[in-house]
């Protein structure tokens, strides 16, 4: 039934300041779901690219000129009135002051304090995706030593790092439990999320925010584990599709560039990275040989952000 309907492409703008504050608007009278809150945007017209539609809709609805917008996530949603393919872009820079040209109510919000309702039904997972930081750190006590790593971690947290994965394959179970507890405690102090690689029981035991599945686990689990935030490592399209089918919160996808530890391994390169991840419903972090300065390039190719195992722990000054 619904699957036979024509897919309607919709360009959707998440207009977001650097501190994470974003804009929701209330759908005007006369449209389906009038009064519901949504991100500004609208249907792609015949002959238009999604990007062109985004720029046009935002000019029409808010009177601002989009100058920097990055493809982000794509979701297909079946409404009684239409089957829509929502192309979400993060709009990070614009000219002019947003003004409600269609008399819509506006609200600037942070993802952890959304106090307007109801939202369009498709938008719940989008708020969850928006709450994920754009820089993702992976622990590296293997190279820095446990104490050395914790010092670097605290300095990175002080500088604004907001998510870290505990991944130390060389540690014994006891060492890992104590290390993970230290990372969780530091994370809590600085308001950062902590996920634990592969071990659901350990994540629960140390009070982590969630679990990061290995690509092997990803292909084996039948259902999404119920322990908060769930991510996974992916290296190919099949794994990415599996992560999408399991409704995971995010994935790491790479290697994008050669890495120090595996300089001769095949890499995706940015163009292939962008091609493979386009149309995915969940945020994708680029991984492999990246530095903080690569963030905007990653956005350009559709990534949510970048994940780093080494450069994120270097002192910036
Ligand atoms: N703009 C927008 N549309 C969304 C969001 N989430 C969501 O499910 N949609 C759906 C609702 C609609 O079915 C479709 C957008 O269609 P629309 O009616 O707003 O498009 P439009 O501005 O081009 O309006 P019109 O041509 O019908 O006047 O996408 C969102 O966050 N923003």
TrEMBL record:
8-oxo-dGTP binds at residues 27, 38-41, 123. One of its GO terms (molecular function) is 8-oxo-GDP phosphatase activity. The keyword Ribonucleoprotein does not apply. Its EC number is 3.6.1.55. Gene3D superfamilies: Aldolase class I (3.20.20.70), Nucleoside Triphosphate Pyrophosphohydrolase (3.90.79.10). Its cofactor is Mg(2+). PROSITE patterns: NUDIX, NUDIX_BOX. The keyword Cell membrane does not apply. SUPFAM superfamilies: Nudix, Thiamin phosphate synthase. It catalyses: 8-oxo-GTP + H2O = 8-oxo-GMP + diphosphate + H(+); 8-oxo-dGTP + H2O = 8-oxo-dGMP + diphosphate + H(+). It comes from the Bacteria. Residues 7-134 form the Nudix hydrolase domain. It is an enzyme of class 3 (hydrolase). Keywords: DNA damage, DNA repair, DNA replication, Hydrolase, Magnesium, Metal-binding, Mutator protein. Mg(2+) binds at residues 41, 61. One of its GO terms (biological process) is DNA repair. InterPro entries: Aldolase_TIM, Mutator_MutT, MutT-like, Nudix_hydrolase, NUDIX_hydrolase-like_dom_sf, NUDIX_hydrolase_CS, NUDIX_hydrolase_dom, ThiamineP_synth_sf. Belongs to the Nudix hydrolase family. PANTHER family: 8-OXO-DGTP DIPHOSPHATASE, NUDIX HYDROLASE FAMILY PROTEIN. This is 8-oxo-dGTP diphosphatase. It comes from Sulfurirhabdus autotrophica.
């Amino acid at each position: 039934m619904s699957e036979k309907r024509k897919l309607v492409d919709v360009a959707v703008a998440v207009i977001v300041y650097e501190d994470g504050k974003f804009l929701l608007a209330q759908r005007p009278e006369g449209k389906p779901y009038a009064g519901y809150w949504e991100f500004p945007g609208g249907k792609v017209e015949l002959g238009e690219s999604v990007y062109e539609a985004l720029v046009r809709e935002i000019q029409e609805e808010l009177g601002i000129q989009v100058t920097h917008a990055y493809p982000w996530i794509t979701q297909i949603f079946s409404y009684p009135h239409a089957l829509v393919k929502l192309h979400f872009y993060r709009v990070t820079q614009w000219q002019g002051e947003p003004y409600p040209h269609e008399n819509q109510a506006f609200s600037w919000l942070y993802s952890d304090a959304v106090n307007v309702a109801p939202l369009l039904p498709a938008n719940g997972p989008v708020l969850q995706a928006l709450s994920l930081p754009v820089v993702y750190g992976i622990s590296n006590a293997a190279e820095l030593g446990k104490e050395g790593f914790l010092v670097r971690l605290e300095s990175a947290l002080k500088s604004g790092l907001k998510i870290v994965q505990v991944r130390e394959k060389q540690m014994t179970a006891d060492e890992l439990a104590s290390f993970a507890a230290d990372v969780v405690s530091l994370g809590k102090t600085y308001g950062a999320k902590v996920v634990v690689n592969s071990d659901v029981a350990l994540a629960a035991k140390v009070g982590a925010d969630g679990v990061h599945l290995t690509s092997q686990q990803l292909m084996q689990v039948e259902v999404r584990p119920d322990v908060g935030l769930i991510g996974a490592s992916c290296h190919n399209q099949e794994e990415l599709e599996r992560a999408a089918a399991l409704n995971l919160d995010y994935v790491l996808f790479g290697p994008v560039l050669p890495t120090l530890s595996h300089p001769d391994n095949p890499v995706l390169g940015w163009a292939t990275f962008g091609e493979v991840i386009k149309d995915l419903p969940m945020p994708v972090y680029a991984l492999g040989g990246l530095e903080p300065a690569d963030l905007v390039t990653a956005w350009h190719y559709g990534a949510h952000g970048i994940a780093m195992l080494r450069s994120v722990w270097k002192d910036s000054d």
